[in-house]
Amino acid sequence: xxxxxxxxxxxxxxxxxxxxxxxxxxxxxxxxxxxxxxxxxxxxxxxxxxxxxxxxxxxxxxxxxxxxxxxxxxxxxxxxxxxxxxxxxxxxxxxxxxxxxxxxxxxxxxxxxxxxxxxxxxxxxxxxxxxxxxxxxxxxxxxxxxxxxxxxxxxxxxxxxxxxxxxxxxxxxxxxxxxxxxxxxxxxxxxxxxxxxxxxxxxxxxxxxxxxxxxxxxxxxxxxxxxxxxxxxxxxxxxxxxxxxxxxxxxxxxxxxxxxxxxxxxxxxxxxxxxxxxxxxxxxxxxxxxxxxxxxxxxxxxxxxxxxxxxxxxxxxxxxxxxxxxxxxxxxxxxxxxxxxxxxxxxxxxxxxxxxxxxxxxxxxxxxxxxxxxxxxxxxxxxxxxxxxxxxxxxxxxxxxxxxxxxxxxxxxxxxxxxxxxxxxxxxxxx
Amino acid sequence: xxxxxxxxxxxxxxxxxxxxxxxxxxxxxxxxxxxxxxxxxxxxxxxxxxxxxxxxxxxxxxxxxxxxxxxxxxxxxxxxxxxxxxxxxxxxxxxxxxxxxxxxxxxxxxxxxxxxxxxxxxxxxxxxxxxxxxxxxxxxxxxxxxxxxxxxxxxxxxxxxxxxxxxxxxxxxxxxxxxxxxxxxxxxxxxxxxxxxxxxxxxxxxxxxxxxxxxxxxxxxxxxxxxxxxxxxxxxxxxxxxxxxxxxxxxxxxxxxxxxxxxxxxxxxxxxxxxxxxxxxxxxxxxxxxxxxxxxxxxxxxxxxxxxxxxxxxxxxxxxxxxxxxxxxxxxxxxxxxxxxxxxxxxxxxxxxxxxxxxxxxxxxxxxxxxxxxxxxxxxxxxxxxxxxxxxxxxxxxxxxxxxxxxxxxxxxxxxxxxxxxxxxxxxxxx
Lengths: 431, 431
Description:
The structure is a homodimer of 431-residue chains.
Chain A: H1 4-12, E1 26-30, E2 33-36, E3 41-44, H2 57-69, H3 79-89, E4 98-102, H4 105-120, E5 124-128, H5 137-141, E6 156-159, H6 175-192, E7 197-203, H7 218-228, E8 232-236, E9 261-264, E10 275-279, H8 281-290, H9 301-316, H10 319-340, E11 344-350, E12 353-358, H11 369-381, E13 384-385, E14 387-389, E15 395-398, H12 406-422
Helix pairs in contact in A: 2-9, 3-9, 4-8, 6-7, 10-12
């Protein structure tokens, strides 16, 4: 008898990966819970796509209602795409007035690249090390965790991740300027290579880089440097956006900068494939001189109805404030947990986006990569779905649906403490 | 008071285009009909995305049902993606056993490019002139209708569209060989440029090229040449696929070839954003040696439930046979219409994918481009939604939902005859 795993390999091939040594066969979702085929319940601590909770009835109903009426494309006039664009751009400062739609975060970043090139006339890109922005060919070029430097064009230059825990200038009071100096150096490298910067692009919470604490004025300085060199700033808000960080609706706001282009994706319509670019009139005007834009499945009535419902639920259920509150509660208790468990080297993040960095040695910060993988699998067996991130895959990534409350945080904390106890190993404390 | 058009420009920017001089404000769809805000009914002769009809209740219900239960990604085990992969690959000959999922046709072609490069170790691409395959950077490189030769890398070479009406070797009995010789020359150009072919890619109905009649053995010869040079054949079935051509389920079958990679999109889930690549085990095995594949919104339970429903409706309503029958009826009557209207230079196509090429002169085939645009707009005002294609935008493109019947064909024929009458102009007949 063919197992589900064998059947999957036969039908989808070998390129597909599964989470966990013992993959989970999920059949149902509700709120922060996922249920497997045996009826076992898992707390979802990882999935940001079901932003307002798995199968939120308001979003399901919005999709169902509109799917019965009309679902066609943006080459006919329709009000829902405009209603959504209006509601979405209202969340941004004046200037960021225009919304363009795509289906995936990758497609949003593809469009952002085209916009930045058209608006500046330049083709250079500055990216952080170990960044993730998507999987198309052009976006993989700016996804430093997938491509090695020699696989990228000489129009793409990386800068060190501004990490205050383990970065080049960790714990250095002048870290902001020192990290920003690398952006200046990147501009000069581009010029030496015969390019000028079209844009600096960062995920504003640096999720794939391990959610580092970023020195407060770093991004302001970096953006100033890039703008002086004729480039734009693209804020990739696919992960931090829509209030996840609790203190602000968008991640860039925490850095005191205003982007020229913002890209949005995953949580935008709670799982219906929707993404967007928000930008300025001058940028789209420049782009539209030589190009037009169409994406068959993007900005359709159903996609926009689903996305509108997500914005409404965020407001009605006050989910940004909830993310801040639950996040602070969880953060404080994780800090307490760290005093009992030496393996926890750092706890950081904001709202419902928290990283727990695990180390074997507090002096040399040797990453506890193997232990992190063990913890992820132990937690899976204990009914907690979580995963890891960062250059060394040693950062537990906590990124649950926004309806995650203190009671869910308590369950996570209890299971995490138990799992940490189980893998307790000698850790070198600060000497 | 801001009009809908002004509001759209303010919120979406200038890069978005609308169909028709007097754009249509569509608010409802049902079967082959679209309805505007004033309640006026339009016959949809153009949209292939609503493959089984606008808002088909079976597809709407499949989406609604699954959206209430679960909609998460392919890093957990789930049976619906496998059920769909099984049902989909069963429509292909043995060997084309593996399905991989994306969200848009562009993303499917992105993945196909990566697969072909990985499987062959080559990076050369052979494409037809005026081809359309999508809008990402890499796919725009193989989309010759968007990019000029000088904007493309020297690893991409075009070949003439194998057109029997106005092509290089129109009406030439040796056309198949003569057109195929250009594929051999393209291979040699690639080699001179330091490349070898990864793949030949064609839309198997050459929709953007104007739906030409292709000499019967052309594609066999072309594919043989490419395979001998170490390349693969990618069949882009985004437009011809899922039975539209009536005689076969896939466009490549009409050419007596079997592809190595097939890409699918638009009609696949009746408007829910779904696309796929179908390929062989050796191709995915080669790809997975150095890469893995994940696409957040792709292959989800809801996406696959919608796609499964489309396959079921196609079978239950016998829509492929219906497309053949309606198509033949329409084709014959269009041929009759051509005898009364000199502007019709050619009628061609299969099933519910028919092109009507309009000319000003039957000797030199001067394209009636302006007249075609006029006709499209006249028909819009008479309640028929249609559009044009081809290098000269002088081919009326008939590509309605698959439930289009003889009664709808009659209405189209009647309105088309009236509109042709209205713009009747002197046309030079064959001398």
